[in-house]
Specification:
By secondary structure, the chain is mostly helical. It has helices at 3-19, 26-37, 46-49, 51-72, 77-99, 101-106, 112-132, 146-156, 166-176, 181-206, 213-244, 247-267. This is Undecaprenyl-diphosphatase.
Amino acid sequence: MEADTIASAIILGIVEGLTEFIPVSSTGHILLLGELLGFDSTGKTFEVLIQLGAICALLAVYTVKLTKLVLATPYDPAARNFCAGIVIAFLPAAVMGVLLHDFIKTVLFETPELICTTLILGGIALLYIDRRAPAPRYHDATHFPLWLAFAIGCCQVLALVPGVSRSGSTIGGALLMRADKRAAAEFSFFLALPTMTGAFVYDLYANRNALSMNDAVIIAVGFVAAFIAAVIVVRSLLDFVSRHGFTPFAWWRIVVGVLGLAILTFAR
């Protein structure tokens, strides 16, 4: 295996970990960066499977809190409500993801211009939401009512389009429905666990006959890089959002989208 392939896998893994839990679209970033690096994985599977590194990072940081919630489920109505809310929020994107899997992987993932456009439009939307969202009513992610969880899950369906951002769509939707910024980001964290795990398992199954040992090596390298980068982000994001909101991420999306379109225009 060539050294530049390993180097690309490390770079893409770091980018995955840094961007998975912030509203800038990790998939959009690694697809665009992969295009620039000339990196091409089997069935675009690398880009999905390295998300396992980010999942493990989230579990590592939230182990104590998640364990307490699960153990409290049999006797605590609030814990049961939270677990039910995560399941309900997960279902819309899970169903649509299975139905549209082939179209997403073979068409949307292969259209960098679309990714750049959705990065820009999502950035503009996030700017508006961050500044004009209604006064918050819900301040604890573990106490969101079930209707709010389902509505956030419906917003997550938008993230099936690369460049939209899973965290961006769920956080933006939560803010519009009167969750505060910290609670919206934390609920997005929790919802990431079943969503990303489901995407990982389904994509691994769908491509089980196409993957080779070389694929396994670069996926493992990307996994480790994503895990390390994601731990840093998960530990610091909630405090950053509480102080600065989502405007910095919105501008980042717009800059990356514009630069991406410019590069694609002049490179072809």
